[in-house]
Write a structure and sequence with these properties.
about 400 residues; Urease, subunit C, domain 1; TIM Barrel; 12 helices; globular
């Protein structure tokens, strides 16, 4: 099937400016050709889709997601949870143009199941990169999420990681420290693993050639993760200068998840954030913890951004169709330009998932996962909400254009 998108204002996430008057030819699920400057190729047998000046850009990515949280199967049965997760993933694609997501923890390998269902074409959905459970210690981080697996001792960590690999994950999620959202003994300034546990966990991942997604929230945990070879560091609520130097030295990715510390009643700064905060109804004690952490988190994010640390956008909140859009706004509020935020959610989101050669920019030869917006996100990042089309593998899968009169 051949499709020609005409009269597009192209934001290819290569050049930092909109390019009006472009046409993009899609064939075999990929970008076959790009025509600029008003050049219109011979149509042939291609289906023509006029965009009337709308903004064409790569689909969005969210590089840190979870299913909804249910502490036990008594709260919602496993079949119901799996079904709900699939619905959330499909809504993220069709309603918000989020074409790729990287799981940071899901119990019973429900992320692996949906990844296989989407990859096989059995169901329509985004590209999903799975990790199974997130692994923590006994009395570790976020046990109330339902997605944690508690393990202890060097061999306990090795065995748990082998179980994740056996069940078909793409990467391994290790929780090295505490967090903001948890009971009083689950604190983000605390690290949880002993030195021998850390080394065993990273050693087996290295032997099996699996990338480590490291939940690390304080300088000691961040430095240990980077030095031991983590592919990405998640959260980094507290970063010192040495953390920044190590990120740059090792080329480690940083996924800051600003939403965790920033989305509270006292910090919500627009209608979307206020609506989300109201629906979330977070306990007052947790709001206080988030508010207390927000300033330091923002400072570390700004320092990493200015230094040129490799950064990708990940939200760590739900529902998935809103999460990345909220996180994009927080990036800009905390000092990123719309261009930097957009790259984090397109080019760099694909890259942190190992798909940078195939996705994340609008270039000839790449897979055609694209979105069309009614207004320019480089003028206002919230224009990502003005979705008109979603294209996956060169095929329009969501059409939100107003009906023709």
């Amino acid at each position: 099937m051949r499709t020609l998108l005409t009269d597009a204002t192209l934001i290819d996430c290569v050049e930092p400016r909109p390019q009006p008057g472009c046409a993009v030819l899609l064939e075999g699920g990929r970008i076959k050709a790009i025509f600029r400057g008003g050049e219109l190729p011979a149509v042939g047998d291609a289906a023509v889709v006029p965009l009337e000046g709308a903004y064409l850009l790569p689909g969005l990515w969210d590089a840190h997601i979870h299913p909804d949280y249910f502490p036990s199967l008594a709260d919602m049965s496993l079949p119901e949870q799996v079904t709900l997760f699939g619905n959330r993933l499909q809504a993220a694609l069709l309603d918000s143009g989020i074409v790729g997501l990287r799981s940071a923890g899901a119990h019973h390998f429900m992320d692996v199941a949906w990844k296989r269902a989407f990859d096989s074409g059995q169901h329509l959905g985004p590209r999903l990169f799975a990790c199974g459970h997130f692994l923590t210690t006994t009395g570790g981080h976020f046990l109330t999420s339902g997605h944690a697996l508690e393990v202890d001792g060097p061999y306990g960590w090795v065995k748990a990681i082998r179980e994740q690999i056996k069940n078909g994950v793409d990467h391994i999620k290790l929780n090295l420290s505490g967090g903001i959202m948890g009971p009083p003994w689950d604190l983000h300034r605390h690290s949880f693993l002993l030195e021998e546990e850390l080394r065993a966990a990273f050693d087996i991942c290295k032997l099996r050639e699996f990338k480590v997604m490291a939940h690390a929230t304080n300088p000691a945990a961040v430095k240990a993760a980077i030095r031991l070879g983590a592919h990405s560091v998640e959260h980094g609520y507290i970063l010192d200068d040495e953390c920044i130097e190590l990120f740059l030295e090792h080329g480690t990715w940083y996924v800051p998840t600003l939403s965790i510390s920033h989305l509270t009643p006292s910090q919500a700064s627009n209608d979307w954030e206020q609506r989300w905060v109201k629906n979330r109804n977070l306990a007052h004690a947790l709001c206080c913890r988030a508010d207390a952490a927000a300033g330091v988190h923002q400072a570390g994010f700004a320092k990493a951004l200015k230094a040129g640390v490799k950064m990708a956008l990940g939200s760590d909140i739900r529902p998935l169709k809103d999460a990345a859009l909220l996180e994009l706004g927080l990036w800009v509020r905390d000092g990123a330009t719309p261009w930097q935020a957009l790259l984090a959610a397109t080019r760099d989101g694909a890259a942190v998932c190992g798909m940078g050669d195939e996705l994340g920019t609008v270039e000839v030869g790449k897979i055609a996962d694209l979105i069309v917006l009614a207004a320019n996100p480089l003028e206002d990042i919230h224009n990502v909400r003005r979705l008109r089309l979603v294209v996956k593998d060169g095929r329009i899968v969501s059409d939100k254009r107003p009906p023709a009169r």
